[in-house]
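Look over this entry.
=====
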Amino acid sequence: LGRELGRREGLSASRRTKFERARELLGLVGFRYGTRPPDARGEQPLGDVARAVIGAWWATAKAHVPGVRVGLDPEHVHKMRVAMRRMRTALRVFEDAFDGELADALRDEVRRVGRLLGEVRDLDVQRLAVDGWRQRYPEVDGSAWREVDERLQRRRTKARVAVMAELASSSWPALDGMAEACIGSYAAAGRDTLAVAAPSLLRRRIERCERALGKLRDEGSAERAHSLRIEVKNLRYTLDFVGGALDEDVGALEGSLAKLQDELGDLQDAVQTARLAAELCELPPPPSSAAGYALGALLGHGRALESVALAVATAAVERHELGQTLVRLRHAIDGD
């Protein structure tokens, strides 16, 4: 029915969640969970900026916990995971501003919880892709895709149980205490102004992107494309944290990095789909012949993309001018 409506009437499926559409129908304004850190200024001490950034993203992560527990809107899992990712990057970027032992311990715990959330989110992404798969492979019976979705849901339920157990355990309030202790700690490097510290923080991230790009070109694997995506993401986050200390507006450069990150993410999603399809085939009971065919199609598509990862990733890099973006960032840092 969906395909026929699209063909005859030019309609397309909504990409918004039911929760978002319900809020719009009720005339409810958007609500922000947590808070964004205030815009950083060059004259601020590095330690003050670091505390504001990490404190804000930790508050945002905690604000999504009730929504994660209720489980009606998958965006809470996504946004809590993103907040913890940003927090983890900030702990690395600003590591010299805090007690090293406290920062390392907090980063490890944030990574551990983030991985639990990631298991749920990755399966949400795959379930959202089912309609697209149905359109890509119209020869596959609809019942097969319903069976595939049911298998995805079983995997997601198991992953969600792990998240709920974590949030109900004593380690969750302990993590809150660790965050407060780290944010309240102090290191001598935190006395530098952001204007003094920002150039070296950004250069470090630019160099990591350059190395990741070189490894992609040398090895050409999907794994290297994923590593580049991570470094691009971390550079973008760092610009968001400290870019206010630069004389030049870098908003356009951040936007270019975000688009590249999304395209490399699409490649990674396809590779993950192939791996997940193989795992779903092993999930008891054995799939029906139709579902097995559908999973085989996903496996083949993902592996085909994985085999041409260098070409796909290189095209994305060139389309979004990563090399030129990194050069322009260096000029912005140096004041050229």
Notes: The chain has 15 helices and no strands. The mean pLDDT is 92. Residues 33-192 form a domain with the CHAD domain fold (CATH 1.40.20.10).
